[in-house]
Amino acid sequence: MIFFYILIAAALLIALLFVLYYQRTVKKAQQLSDAHAPIVPTSTLSTQRIMTRTRKNASESSSTNYQSVREKNYTILVVDDNTSLRSMLNELFTSLGFNVFEAANGAQALELFQQEMPNCVLLDLKMPDRDGIEILRDLRELSQAVPVILITGYADPAQLEEAEKLGISDCFMKPFDIIELQEEVIHLVEPKPILVQA
User: Fold this and answer.
1) How many angstroms separate the CA atoms of 47 and 136, rounded?
2) Is the pLDDT of residue 124 over 70?
3) How far apart are CA 83 and CA 92, in angstroms?
4) Are 80 and 22 within one domain?
5) Could you give the CA distance from residue 10 to residue 92 in angstroms, rounded to a whole number?
6) Which pLDDT tens digit goes with each residue over 126-164?
7) Of the spans 23-32, 92-101, 154-163, which averages the highest pLDDT?
8) How far apart are CA 80 and CA 102, in angstroms?
9) 27-31 long-range contacts, Cβ below 8 Å, gap at least 24?
10) What is the CA radius of gyration of the chain?
């Protein structure tokens, strides 16, 4: 009988050791994951968005903006080598009434930009053929006025500083909130009312 109790105590001790080992392994993996997370400068970045501008919550957005967008037939150029992300953004902005053009690389982006002269550009920072900053520089030679929103999975401070100098309108970190992105695009393409002071 005493042997039976010793056996149960040993089994409980082994189970406890397994649980402690598992917790320690998970904690180490989390620390390792945190150590390899991209470093984002807190001076210019928030968790998901770069560049600060106050905005309404998505729930407060007005449906008249969407109606206005549908009526005006705006054009947007999505430049990203990720096919599924391009498709998702195409579907989102098409449903809002935008004409959406997709480019998988820098060469296509510049060609489409010259042909279509979009009202807004969504530009990935990391591209296979050319750096997003180089593409942005070329876009700015063609037009200073078209709003460009950077979309990136990794925020390199030097690149972001260069992008801001070249005149980006905003920057979103992947994964981003698509409703926030949608609201920002609409804010950028819709004409602003002119306030006249008496």
Assistant:
1) 23
2) yes
3) 14
4) no
5) 59
6) 887 888 899 999 999 999 999 999 998 877 788 889 999
7) 92-101
8) 8
9) none
10) 24
Residue 195 lies in a domain: no
Q: DSSP letters along 126-188, please?
A: --SSS-HHHHHHHHHHH-SSS-EEEEESS--HHHHHHHHHHT-SEEEESS--HHHHHHHHHHH
The number of C-alpha atoms within 13 Å of 32 and in the hemisphere containing its C-beta is: 6
Which residue's structure tokens are 């106050």? 54
pTM over 0.85, yes/no: no
Chain-centroid distance of CA 182 in Å reads 11
Q: Token match 């006025």: residue?
A: 145
Quickly state the pLDDT bin for 107 (edges 50, 70, 90): very high
Record the tokens describing residue 110, joined without a space: 């510049």
Residues 24, 68: one domain?
Answer: no
> Position of tokens 């969504």?
122
Q: Are residues 114 and 155 in the same domain?
A: yes
Expressed as residue numbers, the domain containing 73 is 49-54+62-189
Q: Rounded to whole angstroms, how far apart are CA atoms 187 and 184?
A: 5
Q: What is the pLDDT of residue 86?
A: 94
- Report whether 153 contacts 127 (CB < 8 A): no
Output the pLDDT for position 136. 94
Where b means 16+ CB within 10 Å and e means fewer, 95-116 reads ebebebbbbbbbeebbebbeee
